[in-house]
Amino acid sequence: MEDKIKNSFIYSFLCKDKYLKDLIILNLKSLIDNKNERKITIDYNRLRDELIFYKYYGVKYNNSSYNINFILPIILSNTNLNKSENEIIKNIFYYCKVNKEDVKKYEYILVGIAYNYLVHKLIKNSNIEFEYLLENIKNHIIEFSFEERMEKKDIIRFERLRISFIQKIDRISDENLEEVNEESIIDGFLRVIYQVYIKDYEEQSEELKSIKNSILGILDFKIDNIDIENIDFIKSLSNYLLKLRKYEINKKLYNESTHPKELINLNVGDVVYNPILNNIKVIDKKIEGDILYIKVQSKSGDYIFRFKRA
């Protein structure tokens, strides 16, 4: 089982979408294990600072309709389906708010619930029959209810999407791929299910490839010739994820205060500790045009920060 979980995480990086892969890492780094309550949750103070730093060294938000596999670390690290589901909902709401994607949040919630259910069931038994699995996903979606009260307009919006999702699950069950061809996360997720269980074909979306490969990992498929940048680091993260799952990290809540601009005063050769980056060494610092570039080296790799001159 542990190898399947590790492979599911590692295979999620078999895509070309750097933004998505970085979000998977940021979410994993922000997880905390709560042994008393037997759950793994996101430390949102930590994630907030991770995202602030990411704005200075990362790539721009790609606005893809299929960006959801950032929830994978939450799914794989939790042993309890319902506790995992609750954290996924919080995480999706958080990212939709950060990225100003409120219009997409209920689509993402529905797929997040279904994806979480799928992976948890496959971890326990990867030999579940396809029809039985789909029927149980559908029933889980039907029975789902939010713990918090919602405004009437949001209830209507969510219920319309729920009905549409359930109908499309039936279409996939009938092997009717033509009914799930919209550019939406719901249709994209169901197309991945179709590829995995009914008839495989080349997936064009890099974000959906990530989901597909994660599911294949849980199903114990072995992918040869893995071409993943910084693969040793990704493998170390998969081991870290397993330790979280066993509540062996005992990670404390993040109570630090830091900002990327603190790096500006450092010189080449300086070695410092940063709450987000850990121990880093400044290996390059230069100005090109109106941009100051600072390259730092850390255990997880090199980061190039960009600061625009005022």
From TrEMBL:
Superkingdom in the source lineage: Bacteria
Protein name, per record: Uncharacterized protein
